[in-house]
Amino acid sequence: MKLLTKTSLNFISASVLFFLVGSIVMYFSVRNIIAEDLKNRLLQQQNEFIYTAQQNKVTDLISELVFVQATENKLLYSFSDTVLIVNEKYMLYRKLAFSYSQNEQDYKVSILLSQSESDMLIMKIAIMNVGFAMLFFLIMFFVNRHSIKSALSVFYSTIRKLEDFEVSQSETLSLDTAEIEEVKKLNQVFEKMSAQIRQDFISQKEYTENVSHELQTPLAIISSKADELMQADNLSKVQMEQLALLLETTNRLSKINQALIFLTKIDNRFYTEGSTFAINDLLKEKLEMFSELIASKNIDVKLDVLETTHVYMDKYLADTMLMNLIKNALLHNEQDGEVSIKLANNTLSISNSGKPLTFPEADIFKRFIRSDHNKKSLGIGLSVVKSICELYGFEINYQFNNKHIFNVNFDVL
Amino acid sequence: MLKKHNILVVEDELELAKSTLSFLSENGFLPFHAQDLKSASKLLKQENFTAVLLDLGLPDGDGMSLIKEIKNTKKEIGLIIVSAKDALEKKVEGLELGADDYLTKPFFFPELNARLKSVIRRLNLEANQEVMLNEITLFPEEMRTLIHGKELELTAKEFGLLLYFVSNQNRVISKTTLGEFMSSNYADYGFTDDVVYTHIKNLKKKLSSSGAADYIKNVYGVGYKFTVA
After folding, report:
1. How many CB pairs lie under 8 A apart between chains A and B?
2. Of A101, A274, B76, B175, which alpha carbon lies 20 to 30 A from B51's?
């Protein structure tokens, strides 16, 4: 619910409640006042009647609204409502009945006063009340709405700018200056926070670059020295093999280092730019690059591209993702094995024959997890694929059903 | 006697520079060393270089500035960036500025050698483009191979492999080095030894059937050596 809707709703419901209660209270108090007034007027007429009756005969005082009847009851005194039919209309009257004695005879005197005028009055007051209240609420509603809107305009612009904020872009977050103290404070906090985040991002970026540089250079020295040594003529076979192993291990170390730095970069969103392109051709192109590996293992590769599939990705990451998936399917395969690659329903499915995993299925995308069958693998390739998928919101899953099956769904979650 | 190519090695790591210099001189180059940007630009003014191997992270600044300087001399100088920074942006930036190649540390000497020779070949467009060794003649631009003057059909990978061996004669080249070369630094975690083995086996077969000498020797458990007497 929007802030404006929420405050408006609060305002309306409070107003309606207040208006209802107020109206009821007002209705009853106006009625009371009018009833009191009628009573006073009746009592005044009673006094006038008694005064006039001292000089006149009671029965002569009978008029349209004064009734006199003989009665036995000496102690009559009551107020009541009564209805008379006047000109074929029902009219509501207030009646005061009291006893009056004249010449040893008791009379019941009833004085009537019309209530229809006061009813009209109540009605008019009620209508005016409702009208004014409505008008008042309407004006208040719009004034309130407008003032909240204008007061929060900076707040809304802050939200828009925060939505567009990208830590890897160089421009700093600059928010509008606000009049309202709270929004001003909020903007200050956001600006400070974003500057801090960007600073952290930059130092992390520098750190990964430095780590790479600091580690790769000594590795370069080791491998160059090992290569130099290897050229000597007087080495034994064992020494040569040890040097070769040294070269291989150094190379492996360097690859692990590079892969970890790459993973850190993906996880820290260094690659945020991209473009939309059809992945079909890229898939074929990448598959082509493995033709030697495919030939050397005599693997039967089936490629089923059922439809053009467009993805939004960084080209380099798309390359890496496909290379790693294909390589995984080939390396963890057996001689004369099979690989089937299918592109349909916005999903890339790669399945390959091969021995079952020697570790739990759930661990397949974890770093440094590798099968006992292939100790030379670094165990990073699939982690990289997973990280890339997570970056773009693609879903990737693995299952084993006599063969290893990977599915990447390109629907952005 | 061929004139030796002057090569400038700009590298601040002394040990790495030492190895590189001795490797280059063993392979018939005349290497010079500069530890920083300042001495590099001084040397550039004094000597005529065929190529420069440039490290990017130098004590007195980013090597990128030297690329512009080299390009401003108007001389045809081959330029290979050698950097520990694998950052893609750096690679692209360097190549856009006019570098001819980019090597990521750690690199293998045979790889450096092959790339250096390739850069030098491309610079001398007027001169002979072919690479000759006894009965073998290679045309790198067209990827053609002649053995005893007769055409030999090789796949792109086999041709690359043969050129690589010819560029690195009489040198033990480990399986790791070859694997990295064959995957052309692409498949991040290297090609398998099997693939390397298969290719070399095929290449040897083709060479011997066309009457070439058996140059490629297997160094057991280590790698291969292209032996020329």
Report:
1. 127
2. B175
Write down the pLDDT at residue B192.
66
Do A109 and A56 form a contact (C-beta atoms < 8 A)? no
CB spacing of B172 vs A230 below 8 angstroms: yes
Q: How close, in Å, is residue B159 to chain A by CA atoms? A: 14
Q: Does B188 touch chain A (CB under 8 A)?
A: yes
Local confidence band at A75 (pLDDT 50, 70, 90 cut-offs): confident
- DSSP track, B26-64: HTTEEEEEESSHHHHHHHHHHS--SEEEEESEETTEETH
Decide if B195 and A293 are in contact by the 8 Å CB cutoff. Answer: yes
Residue that has been written with the tokens 């003989």 in this structure: A70
Residues 6+ apart with CB under 8 A from A382: A324, A328, A364, A365
Describe the crossing of helices B109-123 and B156-167 by its angle, rounded to 10 degrees.
Answer: 100
pLDDT value for B189? 43
d(CA A240, CA A244): 6
Structure letter (DSSP) for residue A362:
G
Interface test with B, best of A225, A238, A251, A334 (most B CBs within 10 A): A251
B125 falls in which pLDDT band (50, 70, 90)? low
Q: Comparing C-alpha atoms, which of A332, A331, A259, A341 is closest to residue A292?
A: A331
Chain B residue numbers with beta carbons less than 8 Å from the beta carbon of A294 are: none
Interface check B187 vs A, CB under 8 A: yes
Count of all residues that appear for chain A in the document: 413
| d(CA A144, nearest CA chain B) in Å | 53
- Pick A217's closest partner by Cβ from B16, B182, B189: B16
Q: Are strands A77-86 and A89-102 parallel, antiparallel or unpaired?
A: antiparallel
β-strands B51-55, B78-83 pairing: parallel
Is pLDDT at A373 greater than 80 in this prediction?
no
- Residue in A with minimal Cα distance to B58: A213
Q: Could you tell me if A339 and A291 are in contact, meaning their C-beta atoms sit under 8 angstroms apart?
A: no
How much is the pTM? 0.65
B169 touches chain A (CB under 8 A): no
What residues does A97 pair with on adjacent strands? A78, A110
